[in-house]
TrEMBL record:
Keywords: ATP-binding, Kinase, Nucleotide-binding, Serine/threonine-protein kinase, Transferase. The keyword Nucleotidyltransferase does not apply. It comes from the Eukaryota. Residues 334-356 are annotated as: Disordered. Residues 334-343 have a biased composition (Basic residues). The keyword ATP-binding applies. Residues 344-354 have a biased composition (Basic and acidic residues). InterPro entries: Kinase-like_dom_sf, MAPK, Prot_kinase_dom, Protein_kinase_ATP_BS, Ser/Thr_kinase_AS. This is Protein kinase domain-containing protein. One of its GO terms (molecular function) is ATP binding. Pfam families: Pkinase.
Length: 404
C-alpha cells in the first residue's frame, strides 16, 4: 500500500474492502480489493488465478496482487460507473442502440472467459463496469470457476438470484458456460424496459416468475423444486413484456435463445455475434478493427510497464492501449471496445508468456485449487437496484457481499 494514496472506500462487506486509490508513480486511479481475513484465502486465490488468465478490452484490467500484513490485495484499473447506475438513471430503459452496444461488449467479455474455460457465474449489472463512453468492463471474478469438461460438477451456490438460470437456482450439480448466457438475456430485457426481468424475493418467488414468462419447468427440473412449488402455465411472454417498445430486428428471438430452460438451446457468446440482433454491431466492429489494424501496421506500439514496483506477490499485465477512438451511435459518442480488440490477441499472447514465467510466489498461489468456499447470499434489500437502500459508490459496491 506504500505505492498508493487511498482516496476513499468504494465497497465494504463481510469479506473485504475495495478502495479507490491513486498510484504515486503514475498518478493513475486504481481499485484495490483487500480481503479482510485469511479465511478467504481460497476465494482470493481463485480470483487471482482467473484474473491472471484473462486480458480483454471488455474485462477490467488486473494489474497485480500483493500482501500486506499477511492479507492479499488485488489491484485493478479503476472504472467509475456500472450498469446498475446507468439503469437507475434510466428507469424506463435505455435506447435500443445503446442496449445492443452494451450486450455486444458483454458477449465479447464472456467469449473471452469461455474460451479460457472460465464460467463467470455472477453476471449482473453491478458487475458490469462502464466508463464515461459506455465501454464495458466485466469484473468480480471471485466466484468464477474454471472447467476442464462440459458439465463439470459445480458446488458453490453463487450468482444473484435475479440473473441466475434455473439449473443454478435449483442447485443442480452440473452446468456450464451457457449459465452465463441466461444472464445476458435477463440483462437485455432490463436494459430495454428499465426493470429486472425476474426480481424474485425468494427461491419460490423466483421460480414462479420464471414460469409465468416461460411456462412450466421441464420434467427434469421438477425433482429439485422446493416443497409447495409446482409447474405452472405461463401468463406472460417476451412479446407482452416488450410490446410497447420498438425493437431491433431479432430481439425476441435473441431472448428465446438465451433465456431458455434448456442450456443446450442457448446460444454461445460467439453465436450471439452473428445473430440478427447483434449482426450490424458486429459488422461495424469488424470494419473498425480492420481500419485500426491497417493503421497499427504503420506505427510502433508502446508497452508500458511498472518496473519500479516491488511487491511480495506481483503480476503485471500490459495496460490497455490508450488509442481508443470514438464512433457515433444514436447521436452520442461512444468508444467501441472492439476498436482495441486488435490488440487483444497480442496482449493475450503476452499474458500467456508472463503467466508461464511468473514467480514461485504467484505460482504457488494459483496452482492448486482446494475445495470451494460458498459465498453468503445477498440480502435483496441491500443489493436491489430499485430499493431505497444505500447505493455504493463508483460501481464497485458489489465486489463483496452483504454491504452495510
Amino acid at each position: 500500500m506504500d505505492k498508493y494514496s487511498i482516496e476513499s472506500i468504494i465497497g465494504e462487506g463481510t469479506y473485504g474492502i475495495v478502495y479507490k486509490a491513486r498510484e504515486f508513480s503514475s498518478r493513475k486511479l486504481v481499485a484495490i480489493k483487500k480481503f479482510k481475513s485469511l479465511d478467504m484465502e481460497q476465494l482470493s486465490k481463485r480470483e487471482v488465478q482467473v484474473c491472471a488468465m484473462l486480458n480483454h478490452p471488455n474485462i477490467v484490467s488486473y494489474r497485480h496482487c500483493f500482501r500486506k500484513e499477511g492479507l492479499l490485495h488485488l489491484v485493478f484499473d479503476y472504472v467509475g460507473d456500472n450498469l446498475a447506475k446507468l439503469l437507475r438513471q434510466n428507469p424506463n430503459g435505455v435506447k435500443a442502440e445503446l442496449a445492443q452496444h452494451l450486450i455486444y461488449q458483454l458477449c465479447q467479455a464472456l467469449h473471452c472467459c469461455h474460451s479460457n474455460q472460465i464460467i463467470h457465474r455472477d453476471v449482473k449489472p453491478e458487475n458490469i463496469l462502464l466508463d464515461q463512453n459506455h465501454n464495458v468492463r466485466l469484473c468480480d471474478f471471485g466466484v468464477a470457476r474454471t472447467v476442464q469438461l462440459e458439465g463439470d460438477v459445480m458446488t458453490d451456490y453463487v450468482a444473484t438470484r435475479w440473473y441466475r438460470p434455473p439449473e443454478q437456482e435449483l442447485r443442480l450439480d452440473r452446468y456450464s458456460f451457457n449459465a452465463d448466457m441466461w444472464s445476458v438475456g435477463c440483462i437485455l430485457v432490463e436494459l430495454m424496459t428499465g426493470k429486472p426481468l425476474f426480481p424474485g424475493k425468494t427461491q419460490i418467488d423466483q421460480i414462479t416468475l420464471i414460469q409465468e414468462c416461460l411456462g412450466p419447468l421441464p420434467n427434469h427440473y421438477c425433482g429439485k423444486l422446493p416443497k409447495g412449488l409446482i409447474p405452472t402455465s405461463g401468463t406472460s411472454s417476451f412479446d407482452i413484456i416488450l410490446m410497447e417498445l420498438e425493437l431491433p430486428e431479432g430481439t425476441i428471438d435473441f431472448l428465446h435463445r438465451t433465456v431458455n430452460y434448456e442450456p443446450c438451446r442457448r446460444m454461445t457468446a460467439i453465436e450471439c455475434f452473428e445473430h440478427p440482433f447483434l449482426r450490424k454491431v458486429n459488422e461495424a466492429c469488424k470494419m473498425e478493427k480492420a481500419q485500426l489494424r491497417a493503421t497499427s501496421n504503420k506505427s510502433t506500439s508502446k508497452c508500458h510497464t511498472e518496473d519500479g514496483i516491488e511487491e511480495d506477490i506481483s503480476y503485471e499485465s500490459e495496460p490497455a492501449s490508450d488509442s481508443d477512438r470514438t464512433l457515433e451511435i444514436y447521436g452520442a459518442k461512444h468508444q467501441r471496445s472492439c476498436k482495441r480488440s486488435h490488440h487483444g490477441n497480442r496482449e493475450t499472447r503476452h499474458r500467456a508468456s508472463d503467466v508461464s514465467e511468473c514467480s514461485e510466489d504467484i505460482q504457488e498461489l494459483i496452482e492448486v485449487e482446494s475445495p470451494s468456499i460458498t459465498r453468503r447470499q445477498l440480502h435483496l434489500e441491500k443489493r436491489g437496484i430499485f430499493t431505497n437502500s444505500t447505493i455504493g459508490l463508483d460501481g464497485y459496491e458489489d465486489d463483496f457481499e452483504d454491504y452495510s
